[in-house]
Amino acid sequence: MLLRRLIRTTLRHFPMLALAAALPMVAMASSGSSSSVPMVAQLAEDENVEDVIRSEPRRSRATEEPATNSVPEPSAAGDQSPAPDAEQVVVPIARKIAPNIDLKEIAPLPEPEPEEVPTSEFSEEVSLEQPSVAGEEAPSEPLVDEPEEPVPAESFTLLGKEVLPGTSTRLAWSPQIQIAGLSQITPVLVVNGVNTGPTLCLTGAIHGDELNGIEIVRRAMYDLDPEKLSGRVIGVPIVNLTGFQQGSRYLPDRRDLNRYFPGRKEGNLADRVAYSLFENVIRHCDMLVDIHTGSLKRTNLPQLRADMNNPDVAEFTRGFDRMAVVHSTGSLGMLRTSAVDAGIRAVTMEAGESLRIQEHQIDAGVNSLNSLMEKHGMISRMFVWGDPEPVYYDSTWVRAEHGGILFSEIDLGANVSEGEVLGYVADPITNEQHPIRSTSNGRIIGMAVDQVVMAGFAAYHIGTEAEVPGE
Ligand SMILES: [Zn+2]
Predict the structure, then answer these.
(1) Entry's InterPro entries (predicted)?
(2) Is this structure's pTM higher than 0.85?
(3) Are 229 and 84 contained in the same domain?
């Protein structure tokens, strides 16, 4: 423990030590041709590759301006809310205490709430939480070691149930879009630690065919002991339940749920699902990790997508151990974008490809979530050597120039040089072989699996190491 602290302290005061290994790559990237190529981050995740073009370039440290969408003033919501000590009075009817369930044990499914809880109740509760932070609760935000004096947690209400401190439970969320009698509930796992701390939310399978995230949420949450947790973890392993059951990325109306956040109560189906999740669950989070995989037969190195132009988000990415971080401003309607707009620090985590369960990718995801929780003082891990820092990337896509069958010559995660052949597109009729070459020095952070492609298909996602966000 002591040694670990020492190493951490050293790294905190001499962060360049941790980065020393990355420097030659940075130098190489900036001296190569990539300096003349605009640094445009692209997406392949929850997202069509085309969203890429909309991403704003990452601002360099020198030109960095204060973010416009930082955390809103708590007072804005607090104005019309009752005083913090009125909390007891506000709690409406008889308390429905969630059963304490050992998440490692098999348990019956949670019961759905008969009625939708009015959203006003939720906004009240959200605004109540803010003043209580100013009161006796320890501020949860800074990246610090475990607080010296843990403060006992209070119970909190989610989805109409009160979760007592030091307990874990399964709750039920329903977006209320189906025939009432046939309606399925979506399980929500909650661990409320004995001590106060931040609320971390984990969402998986917003795209129903993205399976690695479901398993990442399960492993990260079922490892938690509420008696040793400071803060809360809320996990929705399968957000898009109907899509999941059909092996489909989309909602039943063929819409992409990750384009409709924060949703509208009276909107289309996707709007309503998004609205219900956002109001009933997401607004309770201080931090959010939305877990995805590559789409359309593409695979991704485990990585975060984060808007590095937002200082709060940039700081948040530092907690994720050695994970790659790719700058992307995100698209309108994405969960992470909407969460950041609502003052929640949020990133997308990408791991592997859709419709598969990939042990390596899952491991990497769980490890970096554990690292995140430790850095925010929520848990205490076994001995860990130092604090590996994430590696930051700007990125570009290399596209196929011809139709045919794509055969890759390199592997995911490979370091490549400008001009290097990454793969071939073979024309099955003429037998022509068209090489695809890397446009820059960097690392393959995402790529298409071998398949039939047409000209313009985004085949390789190349990350070039970027400057670390400001200290
Ligand atoms: Zn996705």
Answers:
(1) AstE_AspA_cat (IPR055438), N-alpha-Ac-DABA_deacetylase (IPR053138)
(2) no
(3) yes
